[in-house]
Design goal:
Helices cover about 20% and strands about 45% of the residues. It is an alpha+beta fold. The chain folds into 2 domains: about 1-35; about 40-130, no CATH class. Strands 1-2-3 form a 3-stranded antiparallel sheet, with no helix packed on it. Strands 4-5-6 form a 3-stranded antiparallel sheet, with no helix packed on it. It is elongated. The N and C termini lie far apart (about 65 Å).
């Protein structure tokens, strides 16, 4: 009788745990997309961006920027990220460009240019930054 009880209990345990090994929800979706072996990701888009806390007047709306292009690439093996964004200021246009590249281990490359409305270069800046906590 004890052998039969132990056998039935073992069989119930095997059947109960067999159903648990099937992935559901997020794990199943990650497997279906191949995200479990993900090494890098790229995405792009366009839209609107607002400068948080930079209102022209106290209590006024934040400046709106039109994001013409937005492209991000993340490499999880390196680890590194590249973000490129081209944006234009909505009502009060600023003629300028800025670019920042994030390398690994705290290194950044940043450059900027400011232009007059007749396309005369007014200022430019380029710097290599090392950030260490």
């Amino acid at each position: 009788m004890r052998t039969t009880t132990a056998l039935v209990a073992g069989l119930v345990l095997v059947v109960a745990t067999a159903g648990c090994s099937t992935k559901t929800g997020v794990a199943a979706a990650a497997d279906a997309m191949g995200a479990t072996n993900l090494n890098s990701i790229q995405f792009s888009g366009s839209g609107t961006n607002y400068a948080f806390g930079q209102a022209y007047t106290p209590g006024g709306p934040w400046p709106r920027f039109e994001v013409k292009t937005y492209a991000a690439a993340v490499d999880y093996q390196t680890p590194a990220m590249r973000l490129e964004m081209l944006r234009a200021q909505g009502e009060r246009p600023v003629l300028g460009t800025a670019r920042a590249l994030n390398f690994r281990n705290g290194y950044f490359d940043q450059s900027a240019e400011v232009w007059s409305d007749d396309w005369q270069l007014l200022a430019s800046s380029h710097q290599l930054v090392y950030y260490r906590e």
